Inverse folding.
């Protein structure tokens, strides 16, 4: 039985590439609140009050060659959550919708995720490395963030801790799942199954 | 047009290291720099691959060698002083390949300082959409 690791441990100062896992990454966004018409009069001042900061565990989705050759100023990131946290959210949503969050339903959910049947999610395997440890995680392509590369590298440089990097071909598998999610087409009418 | 450029030992060293890091020969790397920085808006940037000698656009030779176009030299040790000869760049026929990344100017609406400690930030919560296939309801 093959025992190939999905990850390698890289020093904190290593240049960014696709598949790098970054934890507690600070991110900025706008408030969900709709801008009021009165805000038009002083748009800049109003927008200042709508900035929201939060943090998330993210993985670098930008192509490795674009980073290697300095083709991009900003880095594309997608969030990922540990499976127990994802399960808790799943249970909450199931309960809110009036469904039973049974073990069987959970197994079906995980099987669908693992088999690539859920467009916007992709599993990351647990890591066999002791430090930093990593449990199975769920990447969500619904949220896509970008950060300036210089900022991100400076942020990572502050940490002396090594980080995990997803290895090929698992890195490409993730990238392909991202591509499938983004390029998917829903047909207004399904195929007539007359066979 | 023929251009001869002599690089300082420091620049020579950096060029060789950068070319090696990007997996290109020195001459292709320098040509990309020129095309990307000076002609980038008009001319596509070449993909990261070496071209066979004979097109004659760029050739490199050590300082001790004649400056006339010769076969492209490979990055290697020796005298770090490098001479770059660029021949007829207008005749380059470069297909649109790879990634073209010209700088973009942004109009700044405002700038403001945002003070926070990462440890204190709110944590993003997962978003879950339930699929009917998963339901185990009676």
């Amino acid at each position: 039985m093959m025992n190939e690791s999905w990850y390698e441990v890289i020093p904190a100062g290593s240049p960014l590439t696709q598949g790098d896992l970054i934890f507690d990454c600070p991110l900025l966004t706008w408030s969900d609140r709709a801008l009021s018409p009165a805000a038009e009069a002083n748009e800049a001042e109003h927008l200042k009050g709508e900035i929201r900061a939060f943090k998330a565990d993210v993985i670098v989705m930008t192509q490795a060659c674009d980073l290697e050759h300095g083709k991009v100023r900003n880095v594309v990131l997608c969030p990922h959550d540990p499976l127990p946290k994802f399960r808790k959210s799943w249970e909450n949503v199931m309960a809110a919708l009036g469904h039973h969050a049974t073990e069987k339903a959970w197994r079906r959910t995980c099987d669908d995720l693992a088999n690539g049947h859920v467009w916007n999610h992709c599993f990351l395997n647990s890591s066999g490395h002791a430090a930093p440890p990593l449990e199975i995680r769920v990447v969500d392509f619904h949220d896509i963030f970008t950060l300036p590369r210089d900022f991100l590298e400076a942020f990572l440089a502050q940490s002396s801790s090594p980080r995990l990097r997803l290895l090929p071909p698992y890195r490409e598998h993730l990238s392909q799942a991202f591509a499938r999610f983004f390029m998917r087409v829903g047909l207004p009418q399904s195929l007539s199954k007359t066979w | 047009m023929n251009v001869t450029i002599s690089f300082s030992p420091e620049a020579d060293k950096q060029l060789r290291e950068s070319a090696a890091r990007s997996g290109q020969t020195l001459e292709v790397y320098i040509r990309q720099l020129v095309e990307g920085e000076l002609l980038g808006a008009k001319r596509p940037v070449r993909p990261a691959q070496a071209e066979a000698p004979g097109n004659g656009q760029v050739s490199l030779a050590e300082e001790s060698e004649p400056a006339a176009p010769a076969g492209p030299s490979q990055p290697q040790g020796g005298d770090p002083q490098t001479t770059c000869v660029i021949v007829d760049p207008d005749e380059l026929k470069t297909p649109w390949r790879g990634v073209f990344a010209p700088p973009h100017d942004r109009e700044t609406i405002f700038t403001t300082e945002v003070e926070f400690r990462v440890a204190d930030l709110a944590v993003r919560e997962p978003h879950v959409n339930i699929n009917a296939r998963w339901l185990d309801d009676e």
About this structure: Helices of chain A lie at 43-48, 64-68, 83-96, 103-114, 149-157, 170-183. The first strand of chain A starts at residue 7 and ends at 10.
